[in-house]
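3.2 Worked example (two chains)
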Amino acid sequence: MRRIAVVGAGQAGLQLALGLVAAGYEVTLVAERTPEQVRGGRVLSTQAMFGPALRIEAAAGLDLWAAEAPSVHAVRGALTVPPGVQALEFTMTLDEPAQSVDQRIKLAGWLELLAGRGGRIEYRSLDRDGLTDLARRHELTVVAAGRGELAGLFERDAARSPFDRPQRALSCLYVHGVGSPDPATEPRARMHALPGLGELYLQPALTHSGPCSILLWEALPGGPLDVFGDAPAPAVQLARIRTLMREHLPWEAELWREAEPTDAGAGLSGAVTPVVRRPVAELGAGVGAVHVLGIGDAVVVNDPIAGQGANSAARAAQAYLQAIVEHGAAPFTADWMCRTAERFWRRHARHTVAFTAAMLTVPDHVQAVFAAAAEHDAVARRLANTYAEPSDHAAWLASPDLTAAYLSEVRADETDGVRR
């Protein structure tokens, strides 16, 4: 039985470890926190999972909360201009529903599931020397840690990293008691674009205490929405959110009058520098040198504006699992690691980076898409489903010419439909 180590207990690491155990490998997972610590800690992300990622989890028997989590079929989008005036509105319909499960529930549950299925779990932190020792004792070591010393072992790939600093200041809050602008259409996510200021996302989710709403501010650094840099407690965070809403989104402020944080760990604030790192790191020297393979946030970190983090991690875990199984008894060389990671980059990860960059920078042709979405349901639907399948970005959003050709085709089709 081949021995494989996985370092990091997020979406990618745990999903990969569970898949390897199911495939008959001897797996050691290194996690910093126990299930109890994860459940009792602070929220970790917004983690909206789209149809393709949800199908991966379901096929692996990991969709343990599918019946409880709200299913989101559409996103209501709006463009707001100062002073709090809604300029346009559109509805983006998903071909498959999305769901969001609080990762404190999900990851804690998966840790317990891994232990129950025979995986070995070591609860400890690792530094470079500890990782080197672990890698020497296993045939393959996969690192799924996207922060701290271990992530720093993977060199930044400047050619593939579109940014060198955070593009948004982030503030996430889980709440109960948010009202709905149209109860008959719920559950539905909402997205507000505030040009020159940032974006606001609201999505239904499942947390410890049942269904809830997750708010995510994406504020331009230094702008009027960037007021959470001191990482305030959830109650203070909520008070500031209400103040911002009264000024910039007064109709949302009305819906938040009864809102309350779900728990003491319901808030998260900070910033993310989008980065692509080289997927293989060499540890040690000489005859004792070993290589480790990065996955998930250890290799590609996206701003959450396009919702690609957990979705890409799920796809990476599936792709790496398939590559490991297909490799059979052959040695896991550095060359094999590079080829495995590059295959996933070309098939999927590069599209998440490009799509996320487009949503962060909003070039003129992407602005034209949002305007067209308010007029044409076909455009709104395709935009929604590009979040679920970001490779479609290359077919219609990657350049002004592609977008112009697509929008012309949509308008021509609708004109022909009227004539007929």
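3.2.1 Second chain
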Amino acid sequence: MGLISIEHALEQLLGGLATKDSELVSLADAGGRTLAEDIKATRTHPPFSASAMDGYAVVAADTLDPKNPIKVIGEIAAGSSFSGTMKAGEALRIFTGAPVPEGADAILIQENATRDGDTLFANEPVSKDKFIRPKGLDFSKDDTLLARGQKLGFRELSLAASMNHAALPVFKKPLVAILANGDELVEPGKIPGPNQIVASNQVGVAELARSCGADTLMLGIAPDDQQAIGEKVAQAIAAKADILVTLGGASVGEHDLIKDVLGDAGMNLEFWRIAMRPGKPLMAGSLGPMKVLGLPGNPVSSLVCSLLFLQPMLGKLTGAQDAQSHITLATLGADMEANDLRQDYIRATLEEKADGSLIVTPFSKQDSSMLALFTRSDALIIRKPFAEPAKRGEIVEIVQLGAF
């Protein structure tokens, strides 16, 4: 099976996925979830014309002459109202959020008023409708304000509450099972043996999955033993995981056993190896209803592949509107050599100029084991297969890592 393109890989990965069913959850549990339906306002907001400031409800014409006395006939606090109709020459003490009384057409803020007992003078004239929030200023009943596919953050949840929704329909969370493989790996916090390293990939992949709205099942590290790997795969099947992500063990070495174990379990192999760097030994398949995504063992390779492939897969499952990596343009800050048959994702720094333009400069080292360098990177420069040499000042496509 030869190398396939990134576009073909994405097409195959997403083609077999269907969006999860929906469920109703409380606002308190809806953060980070994706809306399964359009949401309409159940009320008009504000439901009445309200004062935007502390001051006095007045007739604007009464404030034109600073010597004109205005009689204060009462007070309206937020949560209360005035039952009568205010007349010319009268005023009501009013507080922010309180309904503007019938007959008033402006709010004289308290800083611009002088009061002597029940007599009020306007230090400055106020125009009609000044400091009044009209009914329906924000939205009206039955307005569609939140759309299917929107991810619910703090702004969306506040708006839903204002629309008087206590619960929202969201897509169910997918379950991602994550399995690392290799005798050379130990869990973070443990002391590695003389020929071992600390496993890091599973932590980053799990966090990316959770940020995309998924739950995770951490299967730990399986040694290079077919039975041990098979038992971990069985756990993912029993948990009804939507996606099984494997880390390492899918290359061509004698100790790379993941592909064989999954094949013995009945996996339908969709592709194996992809024309990209970092991340050539990428595997995809399906094991019954569970998708399998076999990521490379090198840390940067696994994280870049998670960004490019796992993120859109989870976007499809959760119904997210924008599930693809965010690609933008930037000006190259250094010369680059010609590329070979694989599409490169080159780690780089990003500088924003005063005019808003972006300058992207690649690091000189690009080894796929260098996590510290990846963490310092602001972007990935996309280099198409067989790209010609690029000169400083040329426009290139980038993936901004800050968006994730």
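3.3 Remarks
The chain has a mean pLDDT of 93.
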